[in-house]
Amino acid sequence: MLKIYPKTNIFKPAMKSTTGELSSIRQAFGDTIFQLGSKNPNLYVVSIGLRSSLCLDKFANKFKSRFIEAGIAENNAAGIAAGLAKAGKKVILASFACFSPAINWAVIKQSICYQKLPVIIIGSHTGLMSTDLGATHQMLEDVALMQTMPGMQVYAPLDATETKLITESLVNQPHPAYLRLVRPQTELSYPPKLHFTAGHSQVLRRGTQATIIGYGPILNQALSLDKKYSIDVINCSSLKPFDSDTIIASVKKTKKLICLEDHQANGGFGQTVAAFLASHSLTFQFIHLAINDSFGTSAKDYQQLYSHYHLDQSALIKAIK
Questions:
Q1: What CATH number did the domain enclosing 259 receive?
Q2: 195 lies in some domain
Q3: Given 3, 208, 270, 319, which residue has the most CB atoms within 10 angstroms?
Q4: Is 5 within the bounds of a domain?
């Protein structure tokens, strides 16, 4: 049964702002694609009926011959993207994650990954941050789906700043890739002078008490913790390939690992990292803060959902203790 949280029961945000400034990850993506399209006549976009939601109107209006609206036809859209890439084009395949890759995963596997085509698959509206759209649109399984795909790279930016950097990086690489975006405006937390490199993580806060890893805006809950908590906070926006060296070095120091992710625990990034570390005979305590074999539900504020599923800052503090 779908549970609707009443308007009168909206939680105040539990996160303290690290910068006080909010920005849209989706808008950063759309603006970056427009800028890249202005420089690269080989860049194409295949949309699955959601161009405005992915902030692609500027690209569509300016580069009409390079914008293909496939409509609500996810499998066909993936096939079109594969065909364009096979013809030598650089292709963006854009939709909500609950439609792509959730519906067209088999076509992505057979037509894009099997042929190692450089299609960038954009899955927006991921995680519990889709709030009032409910369980059907709160995609909580996409990382599991995409990181199991041979040859597929997986990325999830911390904020709008990193979204721009990752998008620019992906357009210049020869591999299929998945980029995970969220719906609402979020805090700007990524250091403005910091570069992005595929396969590398960033230690955004240093300490000795515990190691916290994660990806996407949910990681702000760790970054904004009181300074009395001495923690390493590692932004793992490159999920596949992931930066094993940085995580190993931190866990060897703290002996305690917490993975915070707005995704199912089963098949999530935390399981991937924990299995890797265990295979290297490291001794450490591990807590995985993620969705525990459950679908999402509706709310007016995603902080309500983080509290409901024990992903909020109080749950994080309890895990550290």
A1: 3.40.50.920
A2: no
A3: 270
A4: no
- Contact status, residue 189 vs residue 158, Cβ threshold 8 Å: yes
Alpha-carbon distance of 298 to 275, in angstroms, equals: 33
Residue 231, token pair as written in the block: 């923690």
Could you tell me the two tokens for 56? 């692609």
Q: 208 and 183 share a domain? A: no
Q: What are the residues whose beta carbons fall under 8 Å from the beta carbon of 113, sequence distance 6 or more?
A: 149, 150, 151, 152, 176
Percent of the chain topping pLDDT 90: 90
**C-alpha angle with apex 78: 74 to 83, nearest 5 degrees?**
145
The string of pLDDT tens digits covering residues 252-285 is: 999 999 999 999 999 999 999 999 999 999 999 9
User: Model's pTM, two decimal places?
Assistant: 0.92
Domain carrying residue 236: 202-320
For the segment 6-34, the average pLDDT, to the nearest whole number, is 65
For 167-242, list the strands marked E by DSSP: 177-180, 185-187, 202-205, 210-214, 231-235, 238-240
Measure Cα distances from 50 to 96, 306, 310 in Å: 8, 27, 31
Whether 3 is in a domain gets the answer no
The secondary element (H helix, E strand) that includes residue 199 is none
Same domain for 237 and 309, yes or no, is yes
* Bridge partners, 285 (sequence order): 256
Give me 222's structure tokens. Answer: 């760790």
Neighbours of 11 (CB within 10 A): 17
Token code pair at residue 64: 């009409």
